[in-house]
């Protein structure tokens, strides 16, 4: 059965569009299983109907026309029950619904399986045969496996279809993603290609055909020359047989070959890169479907060659990119260097197919105040190029080619946002006090001096979290001690006289250094944070020395160690910290220089630490709760997994319980406690946390004034009552609803966007 399945999925992967996928599946299922009929119905959720989209063995005229209500017939039953239905004789079942003219009369046995993606029924695949015999158990499991496999293909296709389908009624075409930097923007998408790759080339129509053909000739000529050079360089190093590959490349490229075909595509009106893509895809398909493994392998050569031509074609294209006003930057992976290269004045939002809110680029977008969504439902982003879009980075939604009504709703929201920001600015000089005058320490999570100004203006009284891996990411190699001293000094100077918490290197998980890649099967549970730095004392010690050097004559520096999960790790870290401190202390010779011992703490983000608090409290001066990771480990939910987005919530009752337990125990142990995870940035959560007893919250610069506004409207007593109330609830939804109501009652609803 496995062979049958893989033959089908292989065939499907070569299909160009959804219809081809479906047609291939029904015909292959019939031939592989030897059944007379295979049909696929897809759900139309607007009309509550299943539509017959592909069939083998039924009347072909009914394809696209036969529609069955969600509560009708066997198809409806499979959809409703969300489980397979297996019948020896379909027409004797009470749900059987006879439809004229589809040629079902002689059929008896029926097996229908729902196609479900992320709990949503996308359709039903069914097989039927004349003989009234039960299908084999193997056939049933085969169809279930196939349905599960094609569900993601269909759902990707659904998303792509939405993008492509400009002529469909103004349905809301929406792609979901993970919000990385909040805000809303309306603009035109521009897809950029960091690494040039054929699959990411969008379709573009050109007017000037001769100019485009000239570009092609130049690129091909350049490629010929490069191949020649390569071949010469390789002579003597590789065998003659391997060398002949370069000749083969030259031939394939030659004017009678691919170049001619690409020219024809350009003449049809496409820009050269897309023309190349079309031609190459055709050849690839032919090669990949060949039985001979040697010839199948040649597909890779064709692809390689095409990418070389493409690189030559695109050289200018990438460099020439000058964003127009209100451009939404879209890429497969937006990198920090890309953000640094492109002039950002006209960029109004950023969308990255892959990535996460905690990636360097994600953090930079926050610092820049650019709405950003990183990590999308799978789709071909190149199809977004040139489309008008709304980016709602509060709710993690992108609306493609939105209708005027939706645009005007969002325009209103943007106006309200601007008004709210202006209004919040008026309170910048107000102290961070609750309604009854209790002081709350609001600090900033910052990794870039770019947002210091904004943070100070909004009332940040120091840096609660400085992520050192961010400056490490901007280097080509591990930065020297001197370079690091410079970096940390700049940070400390930005908040002179105020507390500055420097977190030691936290790489691994989703944070990679370009020059020190960590590749693991399970990176969030792997070699990350202090686990890496303890294994590399030469890196850890240089960093610690640099922090101490930068902190000479400063009393407010704090050091936090990430990802501590055992007391042994903590002890080992403290030994290195003490050693570096003693070294720098010993190196000071000038009388006007004094080294103060910084407060040392841990980032509490591994649940095992909840059960070792006393041991921790004995050893360190403070604990800073990293709720981003703590929630992910507590709930076993990958913080960057879009599928699990609804599960990852700081309002989950166990999260609240843990936060309550932590404050209670830390108060008993008399150890300083603060929060530096995103939870503190949410005004709703901040109220609950203050109600529990927290007094130090560190957050992204953009959220300080919102949190400040919220806490100024509640007294400690009111927040305590509210937190006690929500702690009694059993679901995150109930907690959130109650908090929304409470905040709304005080006219603060505008501080919260629906999806926060
Ligand atoms: C956290 O885990 O909450 C935290 C602050 O660290 P990071 O987001 O950098 O992992
Ligand atoms: Mg963390």
Notable characteristics:
756 residues, Glucose Oxidase, domain 1, binds phosphoenolpyruvate, Enzyme I, Chain A, domain 2, Beta-Lactamase, 7-stranded mixed β-barrel, 45% helix, alpha/beta, binds magnesium ion, 8-stranded parallel beta sheet
Characterise the protein shown here.
This protein is 45% helix and 17% strand. It is an alpha/beta fold and 756 residues long. Helix 5 (209-234) crosses helix 9 (293-319), helix 13 runs parallel beside helix 23 and helix 15 (481-494) packs across helix 17. The strands form three sheets. The protein has an eight-stranded parallel β-sheet. A seven-stranded mixed barrel has the order 7-11-10-9-8-12-13. The chain has 25 helices and 21 strands. Phosphoenolpyruvate is lined by residues 358, 465, 467, 506, 605, 626-629, 676-677. Phosphoenolpyruvate binds at residues 358, 465, 467, 506, 605, 626-629, 676-677.
